Amino acid sequence: MDQLEKFVRNNRAEFDSSNPDPGLWNAIEDRLPQKEAKRFSIWKLTSVAAVGLVLVLSGVIVGMSMNNDNVKSTAEYMEFREAEQYYNMQLQQRVSALSTYTYDPTIDDDLAELKEVYNELTTELEDGMEPNKNDIIQALIQNYQTRVDLLERVLERLEEGQKQFELSNDEDDETTKI
After folding, report:
1. What's the half-sphere exposure (Cβ side, CA atoms, 13 Å) at 105?
2. Residue 73's pLDDT band (boundaries 50, 70, 90)?
3. Which of 23, 32, 62, 137 is the most buried (most CB within 10 A)?
């Protein structure tokens, strides 16, 4: 053991009994660098609150805008469903009228091809991104219109052919009577 350590051990009681002078701590504090007290400026507080308010309002406006787009697309989708019902009824009427005639089977192939395109478009509508949905809905309606127009033209030609056949039969009957 060294002498300092021995001295501290032997005189320990004297070290613990002495209290420093109360003015000592004041003198030490005076020599320390002074810190400025942090004060919040009313302008800083107001600007932070304003920025927060702007962010919240921006979020609300964007949310409402997105909700309006969903409502709009839902309304457009409902209009499409109404058009779909109308065109399905038109197609059923024309297919029913067509079934009474004998016609070229390639018409069925054309209709099947258009139906395949329709099915692909409905898959795209269900899986598609929001901006493309209106274009897909328009393409679906156009597909319906094309199928109805095709059936309408075929029916018109078949009816014209039927009328001509009936007229030629009527003329044959009149010549045989004379």
Report:
1. 0
2. low
3. 137
> What is the distance between the alpha carbons of residues 144 and 132, in angstroms, rounded to a whole number?
19
Would you state the structure tokens that stand for residue 85, as one six-digit string?
């019902």
CA 107 to each of CA 162, 163, 170: distance values in angstroms, whole numbers, following the listed order: 18, 21, 30
Q: What is the pLDDT of residues 7-16, one digit of tens each?
A: 888 887 777 6
Helix (H/G/I), strand (E/B), else coil: 3 = helix
CA distances from 148 to 38, 73, 135, 155, 157 (A): 79, 26, 20, 10, 14
Instruction: Read off φ and ψ for residue 32, nearest 5 degrees.
Output: -70, 150
The answer on pLDDT for 174 being more than 60 is: no
Structural contact between residues 150 and 111, judged by C-beta atoms closer than 8 angstroms: yes
Cα separation, 70 vs 76, whole angstroms: 10
CB atoms within 10 A of CB 114: 15
Asked whether the predicted pLDDT for residue 70 surpasses 70, the reply is: no
Q: Are 96 and 81 in contact (CB under 8 A)?
A: no
pLDDT tens-digit map of 84-140: 899 989 989 988 888 888 878 888 888 889 889 989 888 887 876 666 788 888 888
Q: Between the CA atoms of 139, 142, 148 and 150, what dihedral angle is there, to the nearest 10 degrees?
A: -100
